[in-house]
Write a structure and sequence with these properties.
Length: 338
């Protein structure tokens, strides 16, 4: 059985293995033991905190195979993007110029550096073992974060965003970065993303041009990258799109990947999840597949299970399911259909 739980200090070696296998552009999962150790410590502090509102907390989750005790995925929630420093993005919008004498009005798309998205809750760090891609466990890894937000709503903002990794080729080259960012840093795309993961995006963003970049002046290959998703990032996009997230006018600073946005209260797993009482049962006549979680904080657990869910009735769970969720007979759990 696979269970999603908060990260622990002893997870560091396996977490670094996941970081090595993660997609270039997932800067919140750096392949650096010291940086990962800091992230784990910060997450443990966040889960232990008595926060009454959203602040600098980050909640890091891992997906563990209970049989092998191997980690097969991870994901994260940053309660407030831009809490300690601006959260930079590029805003893609039209600039309109007009001439009365010539009776001409013309709109040109332009990219402007901004930190408009600071203050929103940020989903990041999604990575799952390739063997589990396009399975219900990918849904668990992504959506269980949303069930956690539903259970602890005061800790999070009224809107949630996530940046989807943009296009780069099999050699790790990003046409967008090569056309724009590389001119200001003389760094390959992969190296810029690595530095961003080790330090922060602010020191790079502050060296980016502060004036609008007119899109038609970029090479065609770079223009085609704007809002384009890396093939390996498509699943993360699809899962959240089904949750009600939408693209907007903001793109990633380095690879031009799209940003997804949703009002927290309108997200499907938050708006439609329900809490029910459980009853331990030796067997289940399964009729559907569900995501389940307890509503704990430091002891948060979530799984995928085949269940028979009847309205206004206690929910039957096997002993193994109860153990994975760390709940007992009569406990409440949160669930939503896959």
């Amino acid at each position: 059985m696979l269970v999603l739980r908060p990260v622990e200090p002893t997870d560091l070696p396996q977490l670094q293995q996941l970081a090595r296998a993660s997609l270039v552009g997932v800067t919140s999962l750096p392949d650096d033991s010291e940086r990962l150790r800091e992230k784990i410590a910060s997450s443990c502090t966040s889960f232990d905190s008595a926060a009454a509102t959203h602040g600098p907390e980050n909640y890091f989750f891992v997906l563990e195979d209970l049989t092998s005790q191997c980690l097969v995925g991870c994901s994260e929630i940053l309660a407030t993007a831009g809490f300690d420093e601006p959260f930079y993005s590029l805003r893609n919008r039209h600039f309109t110029s007009a001439s009365r004498e010539l009776n001409i009005t013309h709109g040109v798309p332009a990219l402007s550096l901004c930190h408009d998205l600071s203050g929103h809750t940020l989903l990041r760090g999604f990575h799952i073992d390739a063997s589990l891609a396009r399975t219900p466990f990918a849904e668990l890894l992504s959506r269980a974060r949303l069930l956690f937000i539903a259970a602890h709503a005061p800790r999070f903002a009224e809107a949630v965003i996530t940046e989807i990794v943009g296009y780069s080729d099999e050699n790790g080259h990003s046409p967008f970065w090569d056309a724009l960012g590389k001119h200001f840093f003389d760094l390959p795309y992969a190296e810029a993303e690595r530095l961003c993961g080790l330090q922060s995006r602010s020191f790079l963003a502050e060296l980016m041009p502060q004036y609008p970049i007119y899109v038609p002046m970029l090479p065609p290959a770079a223009q085609e990258c704007i809002g384009r998703i890396h093939p390996d990032g498509q699943e993360a996009f699809d899962i959240l799109e089904r949750e009600g997230f939408e693209t907007n006018s903001y793109i990633d600073l380095f690879d031009a990947g799209p940003t997804l946005y949703a009002r927290t209260a309108n997200i499907r797993s938050i708006a439609r999840s329900q809490t029910v009482e459980i009853r331990e049962h030796p067997s289940i006549d399964a009729r559907g597949r569900y995501l389940l979680s307890n509503d704990a904080l430091h002891g948060y657990r979530a799984i995928v299970a085949e269940l028979d869910c009847q309205p206004d009735q206690p929910l039957a769970l096997t002993r193994a399911m109860c153990a994975a969720l760390d709940v007992t007979d009569g406990s409440p759990i949160r669930l939503i259909a896959l």
